[in-house]
Fold this protein.
Amino acid sequence: MQIDVLTLFPEIFQGPFSVGIFRRAVERNLVRLNIHNIRDYTDDKHHTVDDYSYGGGGGMVLKPEPIFEAVAAVTSTIKEAKVPVILLTPQGRLFNQQLAGELAAYPHLVLICGRYEGVAERVREHLASDEISIGDYVLGGGDLAAMVVIDVVVRLLPGVIGSAAATEEDSHTAGLLEYPQYTRPEVYRGWRVPKVLLSGNHAQIAQWRREQSILRTLKRRPELLGKASLSSVERRLVDEAGSSVDSA
Ligand code: 6GU
């Protein structure tokens, strides 16, 4: 996958992607990340990227021209007919694991990071194919949001994480939170690892984990259970545990 990012602050993209899984993915040519400075696509002496809001108030607005120019330059080198051009703003549709999975299927993404008090509406209407927010709060800009999106999407690309099972069991992949994880030692400060995990009985372990996932989701994020696919036995587990959670 190739990801092109348009930002006013290219330098902030250096840290997170030069370590760990992402770095290895780049080294193995599973992903290519190109960071472009929107300011490089201005043509006036002062490299102006923002301007006042028509109608007054509301602070500065990112001008359309440099962003259109930057997207044109970036997409002119791309073969695919339909490249998602995604604008990161608090008004976008809410990012989640499912949307990440959809984005991971594209060979190419273009991400535009909003800044200032807003992005020219004509970018939204006539350039972006999608608009994404990472949550119901306001960041200083879309850059951190773009980094979140990149991080989530790239770890879903085939080969980036050792085993496919590792992402299949992640929280939110099956619409549930992940089960509790234990590692050595078997007893730490008197706290024991649950016996079933030491049993070597894989079917029992799988069932225990599934139940823990469901119970943890019920307790912490009950609204997720509406969309999770549960067996009738598991639904009953939820109903029984639900009545004791309510009274807890
Ligand atoms: Cl994508 N941008 C900004 N500025 N704030 C946000 C966001 C994006 N997503 C959540 N808050």
